[in-house]
Amino acid sequence: MMKQAVINFVKKVSLAELFYDLVFVLAISRFVNIFEHDDHSKIVFQDFLKFGLVLISLINVWVTKTIFINRYGRDTFVEKLFMLIDMAIIMYISYSINNNWEESFTRFNLAFSFIVFSFVAQFIYFLFANKEVCEYRKAFYIHISFFSVIGIAIVSISQLSYSIGIYPAIVILIITWLVPHFIRFIVKEKPINSPHAIERLNLLTIIFFGEMLIVLSHYFEHLDWKGILAILFCGSLFLYYTLFFDNMIDHHKGNKRVYWLFFIHYLIFIALSLLSLDFEFSIHNQLSSTLIWVICYIALIIYVLCLFVILYLFGKPKYRFNLIYIGSTLWILGFIFGIGFINIGYLFYHFCLTSSFAVIMVIQLYAFIYSKKRYSKTN
Length: 379
Description:
The protein is 76% helix and 0% strand. By secondary structure, it is an all-alpha fold.
């Protein structure tokens, strides 16, 4: 019992961590550059693949840093110095995000190798400076070796041409995404502090919502009614997210499961980024109305299902959804998606439908939470 209490104490998110997150505001805002062609050609499917690779690469950096601080961070001066170095590298990486990968491939990968070697330096520093890590030395040795090999591999890949180097780069990305999370099965590692991890993920999610608001600000130059509906849509999606985490999620549940929370949030970040990009596409008429509508609902399905899975894994027992609730939610989603094709070319109509869907979802969830709380009081 005492061990569980130690693991689940509420570790405070430091101001340095909040400051570190700010650099991802820049990085996220650069995603749209992937879809801007110098020759003004059409957006193709490969652009979305590039977007996915870049987003996962950047979130990998954030997750690695966050888990490291979660386990061993003490908010010291040296830690803050490492954060500033990492922020500078991420800013450089951000300006390598564009559609012309043939030119930026070397620059992008070299910058990533720098941040990987920065992680190596941080592990080495903590190994000698922090006495608390003595019982986790084997894990540190594995992390140092792993990131050293990855850093050298990325430097080697950066010297290849884009047409050849992109394939080993994808393999390296997948390895760096998955392997660090499974090291804990090989050697003993310090458990992740669940409340801190959840708060950090919540804060990064807010940054993705912030990017959506920046895109939507375009509609307020001349007070377009589509902007009012879009803000209603964005705000409702955010309220939907907060209702889950403020009321229904157990922040101290399952330290081993918390890895799944990170994986699921990758999909949430992809969904929110797709919605932001979808608004960009509609503003600049970069895609057909049909594709804009389909992308919007693919993102919404991902977003809703991810929150359902989080509730299943981390939810308080009394807030578990039954099949009727899940089925009705998916039916509403499918129904609104279907009637969207009735007048597919009318953008204002789509804004009305999506904002209505988001509001209905919030009302439905709030009513569910209220009924469960009321039932608990009467029993």
